[in-house]
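Task 17 of the worksheet. Students: predict the tertiary structure of the chain below and write it out as structure tokens. Keep your answer in the requested format; marks are given for formatting as well as content.
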Amino acid sequence: MIGSLDIPLIWAFIIAFAVFVYVVMDGFDLGLGMLFPLFPKKADRDVMMNSVAPVWDGNETWLVLGGGGLFAAFPLAYAVLMPALYTPMIAMLVGLVFRGVAFEFRWRSQRERNRWDTAFFGGSLLAALAQGIALGAILQGIHIDGRAYAGGWWDWLTPFSILTGVALVAGYCLLGATWLVMKTTGDLRERAYHLSWWLLFAMLCAIAAVSLATPFLNAEYARRWFAWPNILLTAPVPVAVAAVTVLLLRSLANRQDHRPFFLALALFALSYAGLGISMYPYIVPRSITIWQAAAPLSSQTFMLVGVAILVPIILAYTAWAYWVFRGKVDPESGYH
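Model answer:
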């Protein structure tokens, strides 16, 4: 039975799934951090923190699964990508550390609260920007000689990678604002609604800019999206983005508290699908395919058994945590 399955492709899906779950689950609390300067009142910031306090700790689980899975299942891709992305990856980890420490210490240090709030904002911004830059650096291609990275220290820093970094920041901020719409009440909720309009347009502009720039990176990207008959398969993605945008605009106009967040997640899912369309079947674009980078089949099969057991457990306790802490946050008492 195992022999009839494409194990490397299954592992590629698992890693892609883990990264996507991390992006959508950690994205909104990174977005909250980046929105901090727009909510200067201590009471508002406390509510914002309380809205994610029960769930944010587990989000990095998926980042570990994605990175660890890449190392174990596709060691060649890991060995090529990490030297190319050392700087943005280190910057991301530093940002996550600052954000995590600030999250805990702002409650325990009244005199230094403003400094920890600044660290929470700066760490969130640095982590989000670094993630987007790393994505852009991968998408634009990695210079490889044989089986090793052959580029320079600053190859990751290009106008396109900066564009994808800014785009991800805008997207995370939209997730953060729509999360506040879903979880808060009163003036905080009203301000989040107002911000969601502007951030939605910012994200749409970012999606359009990245989509227009990507085909110019490589002729294969252009053929993948626009050549016949590929266009029959790729055209539904931008059509779906337009449809979700209309629904999101209507949900904001009609003040439907829950729908904007999930529709913003749908925009992320469609953008992620577009990324997959551009990259497949390469794990290092235009250089190394999924099957070329794969670990021995026996190793991947052995690890697949563990993942098949652990991932459903992680999904179950994550879903339970979100279910337990559903509903609005009370400014006085937190979750009921």
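Marker's comment: The mean pLDDT is 87. The chain is about 75% helix and 5% strand.
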